[in-house]
Amino acid sequence: MLLNVRVLAKAKAKLCLNARLTHQVTPMKAIVKGLTAVLFVMMAPPSWGQTLHTPFSELLASHVKPTDDGFSTQVDYSGLALEKVKLDQYLSSLAAIDKDEFDEWSQPKQLAFLINAYNGYTLALILEHYGEIESIRDIGGFFSSPWKQKIAPLLGEIYTLDDIEHTLIRKDDRYNEPRIHFAVNCASVGCPSLRQEAYTEDALESQLDEQTRLFLADQSRNDITDKVLYLSKIFDWYHEDFEKGFQGAHSVQAFIALYANTLSLTPLQVKKLANDAFEVKYTEYNWALNDTK
Fold it and tell me: Fewer Cβ within 10 Å of end Cβ, the chain: N or C?
């Protein structure tokens, strides 16, 4: 994949000039404007056998590290910062996909694209503020949370992270896929792990299944006793997504029961889950940055 270097260089020069003249434009917003302005010269379709998401997989494999307990991952943001150009180029390749092309894709291909976009733009946002923050929630102000900043050029529009998750992925049950909550990563310790590879059309089902099992098996987030089911706040915030009949499950507890083997549940526990008989308590969510340092 090659860029029109000369045109892109001129666009970047203009972007830098505008950023100096307009003090109210943040670095991330400046990047968004620049990306939008030069989309017509950005990445050509993937070639030479390289898929769209290969560069992202390479970045994740290099800079995402498993935690000692094996249930989660951390990001080497310092190392990733050294390859920020590669991340920006990958995001530009996503931005170059138009809606007509996207609409022709299979649902797994669409969903993999959107999950990768969410995770990629989240990483880019963290890099813009890295060294100044201890949590993603430190970005922005009271009226400008990190999830409501328009930072993501996609499909001919500029979206927020909330737009990607709640409109493009979750709205209208287009995908009816509750397991996306174990795939999108909010750059926090309490989040499900950031995978060490990009999501892809062919592997999406197995990737989502593995992410779900890994998250549920982490007893620091989810645990079960004789009477109480301790769950991550994710199941509180998005409980309705687990109540829409995924694999026959119409409640959070029924969804948990789908993974009885992974969780080594007893027949009695499975029966109680099927009847929503457990008291549910939600564990504290850790918003600390998922940094390796």
Answer: C
Crossing angle of helices 204-216 and 107-129, rounded to 10°? 60
Confidence category of residue 1, pLDDT binned at 50, 70, 90: very low
Do 85 and 151 contact (CB within 8 A), yes or no? no
- Which among 151, 126, 150 has a CA at the least distance from the CA of 136? 126
Distance CA 50, CA 54 (A): 6
pLDDT 10s digits, 163-201: 999 999 999 989 999 999 999 999 999 999 999 999 999
E strands of the chain, at which residues? Answer: 64-66, 73-75, 152-154, 157-159, 223-224, 228-231, 279-282
Tokens found for residue 193 = 């792990």
Asked if pLDDT for residue 78 goes beyond 60, the answer is yes
CA-wise closest residue to 96 among 117, 75, 111, 80: 117
- The secondary structure of residue 289, as a DSSP letter, is B
Residue percentage of the chain with pLDDT more than 90: 80
Query: What's the one-letter identity of residue 91?
Result: L
Please provide residue 284's backbone torsions phi and psi, each rounded to the nearest 5 degrees.
Answer: -70, 135
Which structure tokens are listed for 291?
């940094």
* Dihedral sign (CA 130, 131, 132, 137): positive
Can you state the angle between helices 84-95 and 54-63, rounded to 10 degrees?
A: 150
Nearest residue to 278 via CA among 266, 292, 290: 266
pTM: 0.83
Give rounded-to-5 percent helix, strand, coil for the chain: 50, 10, 40
Per-residue pLDDT tens digits for 215-255: 999 999 999 999 999 999 999 999 999 999 999 999 999 99
- Max distance between CA atoms of the chain, in angstroms, equals 67
Single-letter code of the amino acid located at 65:
K
